[in-house]
TrEMBL record:
Protein name according to UniProt: cytochrome-c oxidase
Top-level EC class: translocase
PROSITE patterns documented for this protein: COX2_CUA, COX2_TM
A molecular-function term among this protein's GO annotations: copper ion binding
GO biological process terms, semicolon-separated: ATP synthesis coupled electron transport
Entry keyword Translocase: yes
Keyword Translocase: yes
Annotated TM spans: 47-67, 88-110, 133-152
Protein family according to the UniProt entry: Belongs to the cytochrome c oxidase subunit 2 family.
Main location: membrane
Compartment list: Membrane
Gene3D superfamilies noted in UniProt: 1.10.287.90, Cupredoxins - blue copper proteins
UniProt entry keywords in alphabetical sequence: Electron transport, Membrane, Respiratory chain, Translocase, Transmembrane, Transmembrane helix, Transport
Amino acid sequence: MTSLLVIIVLVLLAVALWQLTKIFDLTQVGSSTDTSEIATDKDNNVQGYLMFGFLAFLYIFSIYGLLKWGPLVLHTPASEHGGEVDNLMNITWVLIFIVQAITQLLLHYFSFKYKGKEGQKALFFADNNRLEAIWSVIPAVVLAGLILYGLYAWTNIMFVDEDEDTVVIELYAQQFKWTARYAGEDNVLGKANVRLIEGVNTLGVDMSDPYAQDDIVVSELHIPKGKKVHFKMRSQDVLHSAYFPHFRAQMNCVPGMVTEFAFLPVYTTAEYRELPYMIEKVANINALRAKKSAELIAKGGTALDPYAFDYLLLCNKICGASHYNMQMKVIVDTPEDYKKWLSEQALLVQQVKESKAPAAVEGAVQVDSLKGNDTTAVVKMAMK
Ligand SMILES: [Cu+2]
């Protein structure tokens, strides 16, 4: 308590001293001849040229960034609508670049031209209606055009014809992984609710729903080339965002509601790997990895695996500590390969049944009834 009082007294003393110096300063007004804080013509000149220096820095850094990091951006879109998104993005970039280059030049040039000069008085200029109309109308028209084009593109991209033959897949987001559920033969997802989550039924699918009988749950996403895939997203815990950068698709996953996005893949994974830009990119990454591996081996570590391209589904909402690693591999197959892969996956209803079967029968018998390659899981379950 005493120390607190001492601190308060010291603070009050400091404030009193500060106030005293201010009063002293006020008594000196008029008698002081110190003009060091008033800019001279030389100061103004220096400031003017520094403005030009800053302008040069802006331009040079923009060009440098464009050349150095420009090639790192996403290249060829892998979905049908991707070109439209890229177009919109490119137009916006070009507009920003032109406007930025011109306005920055004018801003810095006029700052230099009308810099302060001794004896010079600023002109009082109230307004000019024509000038204001020009600089209001031009941006308004350009922005309105851009927004209208954006809205048109967005409605085009988001439109899903109810009668169109699509592949329906649920994406289930949770901290920190993705799970996919295929609607199966009937192409309708069974009902689901978090309250029904139990054992292997990690998505809370209502197993009494007739539509749920052919649902398939997997942790690696396979989609067919040339057919529209209709994703329905759910989240178990917090906001996530399903982001497919190569397909130019992104949609938030919101707890308590189902959000949707549909797109049509145009390159299989194998085809995309063969694109010249991708071959070059992968070669660059592997050259960097080889260099790093050599360093690691020299230090007694193990070499890095070589990189091969794969499409990814990422989470694009910072959703917690391991958000950075919330991803799922996406494989675009030919329609035949896709069909084959899907037919090899076990139905959820079977998995649930197996997991509830009495543990008396060990391993072998249980495996038969499973279609897929998930036999180890079933053996483990039977052993429990
Ligand atoms: Cu997330």
